[in-house]
Amino acid sequence: MTAQTPPTTPFRDPRLPFAKRVDDLLARLTLDEKVGFLHQFAPAVERLGIAAFRTGQEALHGVAWMGPATVFPQAVGLGATWNTDLVRRVGDAVSKEVRAMRARDDRVGLNIWAPTVNLLRHPLWGRNEEGYSEDPKLTSAIATAYTQGLRGDHPTYWRTAPVLKHWLAHNNETDRATASSSVRPRVLHEYDLRAFRETVEAGAVAGVMPAYNLVNGRPNHVSPYLREQLRAWTDEELLVCSDAGAPSNLVDSEHYFDTHEEATAASLLAGVDSFTDHGTDSSQIVARVQGALEQGLLTEADIDTAVRRQLSVRFRLGEFDPRYDPYADTRDFDTPAHRALAQEAAEQAVVLLKNDGVLPLAPDTRIAVVGLLADECKRDWYSGTLMHRSTPLEGLYERFGAERVEFAEGVDRVLLKTSAGAFVRVPEAEDAPDEVRGAEGALDPALLAGRTDLPALTTDAAGTELALVDWGEGVLTLRAPDGRYLSVAEDGRVRASADQPGGWVVQETFRLEPHGKGHLLRHVGTGRHVSVAADGVKVADENPETFEVIVVESGEDAVTRVTSEADVVVVVAGNDPHINGRETEDRTTLRLPVQQERLLRAARAANPATVLVLTSAYPYAVDTADLPAVLWTAHGGQAAGTALARVLAGDVSPAGRLPQTWYADDSDLPGLLDYDVIGGRQTYLYFEGTPLFPFGHGLSYASFAYGDLASRVEDRTLHVSFTVTNTGDVTADEVAQLYARAVDPVIPRPRRELLAHRRVTLAPGEGAEFAFELPLSAFEFWDVAQGRWRLESGPYELLAGASSEDVRLRTTVLLDGEPAAPRPVLERGLDAADFDHHSGVEIVDRTKTSGDAVTAADGEFGELVYRDCDFGDGVTEVTVSVAGEGVVELSLDGGAVLAALTSEASESGPYGYSTLGAGIVAEGVHDVHLRLRGPLRLARVGFSG
């Protein structure tokens, strides 16, 4: 095409705005073709020269599920860097690898399902590893940086199209497809929506993915917030992609709709534009949409709205302008720059939690490195295949020399003896077929998983010594001497056929169950017991084998053997990202697994100079009183071991900061499904206890002095500045953090709240000025009495320092906002969910399409309080909008019941509301108390004179 030869169709004309081109293409598509576009795997339209398109390419911390790719630290580790520039560069590298991989494999998609911005308010949630922080400000800053990197910097075309996960108020895996998060308006606006909003408003987001759960009784896939909030934040056409299988859940598990046609229509009308269901088979979604059209539940205009949003993304990705797409020839893959960036990210993610002077280690230090993670480089569910790997042991060998490093994994070495007196034997690697060998004939662990042509385990008189690793909660793995994990494939045979535990259903985990004088061995993945037969070892429904577990060497003995003569012991503990805490599974405790606690005690007893390195996807509660140094890092990707060794050696001064509170005990935690950070006093914002380590905490090998804090308000903007100087003797990064708190708030406000942060590198003696410009809207709260944001007048304390608790500078500013005013209940009434305080209630859906109601959580009793309600010169009647059976009791200021309104059960079901009234006498300003008795739903309260 040349300037003199215009394209034959407008949608191919790059001179036209995208909106006009989308309209032209949309008009050329038939209804059947448009319906076909609604499934995740949209087919090609050959008559128009349009290629097939898929939504969804996982790339949370590198390209996932599509083979080898650069693997960066887990998302929570990227959050721990507190470095937006670094994370933007990581996103840039990931998107370049997506483009490079797509050039050789068209299964790789350009619509990226990342990042995850769900807030990490509960450290036991299994998907902790996928988020960035418990704080919405930090989360949105990191997420914005990652999406900017994924998007690219061209003003017109996008390198990839990122989709934020998971909308909304979600992260529990327990009952994740049926549980409802009760989210009061203040938490909704000040906390959950905020992380999404600031990232969307930054302009580098192509869409969002609704979560599996329900919010206030309504599934996220039919959430009115998609329309009322998300789409109001931007003029861009955002693409909403369903989570996998969630459209069917609306009927099958949630029972929210009676038919799939109703559910599909409701999702589409709510704003879902692409349905991820039934894998690559689009026929069922297409049939449901067609059925909804035939039943009059949808119109072609509704289909057009969804398809327009999808096409808008495809145009932005340059699909229809291959000659002008600046990213079409991107081939950057596993480059030296990407490998260096993976190491830099891993180094910046390391958090020094405690140091009594033992770190950094001198070059001639004799080191004993022990622990279950000491020689591991773990992948998680959203990791790519490792092309390079570095374990802590390998990193220490490289940095200090193998002659100065002793190693003991610290696991129990066992033999499994059968009731017949034989021992379980793992066939030698030489028995494996050529298909699982590399170029030089060596066994390639990456080719083992799921193989059924490998020899199954047998028994003989000698047996094979196995490494038994207890990951906690009774879940264990068994590993052959050559590193192969015992696994079970579809044929039920037990083989040494995995390089790591993994998969959607992990096939490498077992449980030992006491039985008689021995143990049964239950395979977790199938739920079946291990049996021994003439044709080998397998899992079966009958004839379970009773094993005697003979310990050849205990983990504690191995640790003691290598640690007593060392100068320093490095214990590397933590989790396997596929076991006891991952997608599909929440944890049950903050404590380290018992086996790892024993190893830590054994190391500490043998050598007081013990450094604990926690490598994990989430926080732990560990007694650190007797440990001279403690570090934490998320699983750090391909360069994890090198990065850790460089930090231990002092080549890099640690500067990672905790992105979430580390609690001291399980008793500090709220309920797993309690999403009310205000009422539950959760996260650093509201927690009033003493944490093990606070939000933002992290130490350095240098020291820093803070000074010259100044502030002023000008043009509704707060200007804050202070200086930070490196007073140590090494070059190091410092993460300066600015917080604020309302000094005398009229309602519960955060103890302190992050306003801004910046990470900077300073040489010894070097100083830097940190200057922040903050709109006064940053100090607003959601006023439930007014139904809007409001800035409260009064004093606010500004806190500058190295963590949320390590405050170095303070000053107070007076902000001019709006004075508090009583609730205008005569004009506005009371929406039931706009309470100030509550007890024993949860928020539910008022109708299937919009609004909230409140009900007693146990179906028997709940109480609501609405402060400072202004009845003016007097009211004589109260009305309530209720559904279901029960009684609403009203009193003022906690006094006697003034009205009791009884609702009868209705044949219209939970949404069959009626209005009940009763006479009352009230004037002036009072607190309204409402008591709910029975399983009714209260939607609204009104007053009249």
UniProtKB/TrEMBL annotation:
Question: Where does the sequence pass through the membrane?
Answer: none
Q: Which domain of life is it from?
A: Bacteria
What GO terms in the biological process aspect are recorded for it? arabinan catabolic process; xylan catabolic process
User: Which InterPro entries does UniProt cross-reference here?
Assistant: Actin-crosslinking (IPR008999), BXL (IPR044993), CBM6 (IPR005084), Cellulose-bd_IV (IPR006584), Fn3-like (IPR026891), Galactose-bd-like_sf (IPR008979), GH (IPR017853), Glyco_hydro_3_C (IPR002772)
Protein keywords: Hydrolase, Signal
> Where is the Cellulose binding type IV domain positioned along the sequence?
823-945
Q: Which GO terms describe its molecular function?
A: alpha-L-arabinofuranosidase activity; carbohydrate binding; xylan 1,4-beta-xylosidase activity
* SMART domains named in the record: CBD_IV, Fn3_like
Domain Fibronectin type III-like, first and last residues per copy: 734-804
PANTHER family, A to Z: BETA-D-XYLOSIDASE 5-RELATED, SUGAR HYDROLASE-RELATED
Similarity field: Belongs to the glycosyl hydrolase 3 family.
Give the protein's recorded name: Sugar hydrolase
